[in-house]
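Task: fold both queries, return tokens.
Query 1:
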Amino acid sequence: MENSKEINALIKLLDDPDQEVFAHVEKRLIEYGTQVIDYLENQWEHSLDTLLQERIENIVHKIQFNSVKEDLNLWYQSGAFDLLQGALAINRYQYPDLDEQKIIIQIEDIKREIWLGLQYEMSSIEKIKLINHVFYNVYGFSGNTKNHHDPQNSYISQVLESKKGNQISLAIIYSTLAQKLDIPVYGVNLPQHFILGYIDESKRDEQEFGVLFYINAFNKGAIFGKHDVDQFLRQLNLEPLPGFYAPCSNVEIIRRIIRNLISAYENLGSTEKVEELKQLQEILNSDNL
């Protein structure tokens, strides 16, 4: 690489005691972006200086965080069409080195298993019962009731690994599987709970946007109707606004993941993570769309 000489020269200055020199070096390395990470990690491995190692870790984190911000912004500005891509951008915040192809393959494997059981004449309820059987019984996914506030519940790679998640992460995987099989299941942004709606595409412009019934991904795919949503809202003393019954946008879903993570890290006292996640929140709150 033509820049490797400058990069190596900058890395040699990273342990400079002069704060001004270090600040300049750090800024220059961050400007290079992800291409310097291998150089920095190599230096970290060959160093016994804890201050230098700490400085390298901080720079690598800043570069990776900038990369997450760029990815999320690009996803948002491009129309946020692929929900899974939005969830992967958030996953990169905690797991920047993860092989994302592994996640795609895991989801494809579950999809194939469902596809093998699909029959043309199945009713919408039968299709959901098939997804439920494969997702919960064969693959063993379930709601994480013991550790509900654990931030890991919001990272899709961890949910696929542990088979446990919160309402929203399970709903993202569930609706992604359904949509890949042309089964019209979309997220519904209910307060204090996140559910899914099975949509009759021909009735999208009507009341409730053509939702035939609702699905609770957190509770083994339990199927329920509009009156159950009414009752839930009454228990919360909330007015039954149309948005509580209708499919929501992918951006709203990713916003909600970020809110969950902020809340989880506030509980853990991780103030730096809270501040960074608020920056991600800002990206999705900008009015460029």
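Query 1 returned. Query 2:
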Amino acid sequence: MTTTTGMPIPEADSIEIPAPTIRHQRLIVTLYGLYSREPGNALPVAALIALLGDLGYDAPGVRSAIHRLKAKNVLRSTRVGGVAAYELSESAQTIFAEGDRRIFSERRDDPTREWLMALFSVPETQRHLRHKLRSLLTSLGFGTVSSGVWIASSSVYDRTQELLAESELSEFVEFFCGDYLFTGDVRAKVAEWWDLDTIDGLMAEFLAEYGDADGTWARLLGDDPAQALRSSTPGMCRAAFRYYIPMLTLWRRLPYRDPNLPLEYLPEGWKEPEARRTFARTHQLIAPLAARHTHRVIAEHRP
């Protein structure tokens, strides 16, 4: 078989698919974020088991992960045509909608040069809220200046306010925005406020698994996503699915760890831009193939 340009279609088994160790729950969340986000668009349990089976995971582990996600209020049970199914909770739907811009953008945000300072104080009688507050600020890219004093680009202010309000934590936080009046090496200060070595290490781990992903798939399919989809076989779509879902699952948390500061504030050789470009270009090429495989499997398991 050949493509419309006369070139032979590559065989699916010609692709070396990385196999990073990823927990069932994270892969299931990725599947819902991509293919079953809208209210009422539930996935039959059998479809989830089949899709995770394509990724090398067994049915008992998938069922156990589904129950854990239900207990965490990420999924809720329902029925589709009389068969067991699960759909996203409303809170999870909100999180996915906010995350698209950060996860799928090919470019870093263009952060302002103003700094946002968040000062929080939680009474001792409510100390259990401190961890929740720290986790929220960390997920938004804040660094730590000192206990109770956190810093970020002012570009995250609006979203920070929204999440604090949703979490009923607004009363504990005060914000200040402005310039940092410091004549020394700002890079050294940034390295104190953020654990840059750990963040850069995570980017390096991603690149170690998927550093040539865009080149690998472009050599196989060309660089035109529409043409790649038209020429794809079921086997190639399944291979794309097996490649793409773990890759996205590893990537989707990384943009939340990055402080998203101007590159001149970050160490030489900061790996986030390379990792983002690699993911974005691979996503453009193979996400449609992976989606075709997914929708075929879901259709086979709908009553």
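Both queries returned. Flag for query 2: The CA atoms of residues 84 and 268 lie 52 Å apart.
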